[in-house]
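Async update (no meeting this week)

Hi team, since we skipped the sync, here's where things stand on the single-chain job. The sequence we agreed to prioritize is pasted below, unchanged from the tracker. I ran it this morning and attached the output directly underneath so nobody has to dig for it. Comments welcome in thread, and please keep replies under the output.
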Amino acid sequence: MKEKKINEQAAINNRFADKEDRARFRRIWLEFKAKFPNDKACWNDLVNQLQKDDLLYCRNCYGTDLKFAISKRKYSCPLCKIDGSITSNTFFSRVRKLWAWYAAIWLADHSIIINSCLLADITGIASSSAQHINKSIMCVLAETRTSKTCEVSSIHFFDIIRKRSILTSKLCKPIAEEIEIYDKRKAKEEKTSNSNKAEMQDSNTQSNDIKNSGANCQEPVSKKNAAKSRGTSKREAASEKDKKTIHGEQLSPDERLILNLLKRKDMSIEDLLKKTRWDISRLNVALSLLELLGRIKILAGGNVSMMSSQTLFNETCANKNQDERRDCKLSSFFHANKFHSCLIEKCAGRTSEARAKSLIAHVASFKVGIKRIFGGVSRKYLQLYLSLIKCETILQSERGRSEDNTLLKLCLERSYVGSKHIKTVNSPELLSAAFSKPQKAA
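Output:
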């Protein structure tokens, strides 16, 4: 028992570098252990929750007057004289150590996201079991509908796809899955664009034939040319305006401070937090905008480097990829994604400039949290990890006056998940995310 406490304390100290986050986690963790000290307390609470929600009944006669043997995790029906499992056809079906499941749900219910290694250390279960618990909870969050969602292309999460899955080909990097999907869409886009160009050429030849056939068409054609010239002049003016913003002529005080710090040497995100004494959300916004402008580059391991004068504002590369980037304002933000720009029309990065900046801040905060907590994700389960952002939104909308077990109720409403269902999960090309405000990763 002493070894378990030592491992638990060491795991908490290694996981939480900030004293405030460490103190908050310990406070919430002690509250959980005071309310649910052992596995029996969790089973008693589960039976009460199932009875309260009318989810505990005899599977044969549908009677609710049952007798329970919690130590054996079974019930007996006095009417039909049949015994059954308490957790049959529920989210906790075939669960052995219910205390570990309750611990993960309790922490997520208090907006604390942890990886499977920490969950295994503090609950005393295997890492594979902890990973199954986390993914089962993510499935519940992913299937819960929320009003505040937006559609984001999976290519924008290019640099956090670092882990392999059963879909990753042999002798290939995990990012190869996303590149393969991108290449297929790009080939499809080129095919459609070529067909459109061929149709335009055919229509131009027909219009030239009609124009040469008589002089009555001269006047409307001149009007069309004048309208085209006005449209091109507007586009040129807009492009000049975009160039000014890209070259970063106007920088905020926060952005200037970060650039002055990076002029001396490359720094990590933790060092920047210590130097600036900002919170993580404020630093993420400044770093995101500087990376969007091409002034800095975030390297592997969370180090931030200032771009050199040779690579800064590379006009040829920008002009080369201008047709591929099109209208998506998130494509130029991700340094690892500069040659793989968004090709999806429904992506939220094609909205207004203010909405794009807000979305950049949300995505940057999410990526920092994923790298710090999990070290990276696989493309197969990217949608599940994005569902963690829903947790705070769901709890705020569903939570009652004094109820704490909101996530537990959502889990009870869902039937058994199981490893077979988790293996069938695959992230689509257009992901759904609830970016209502920047994610705070504990």
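Quick observations from my side:
Residues 176-213 form the longest helix (38 residues).
Residues 2-149 form one domain.
Reply here if anything looks off.
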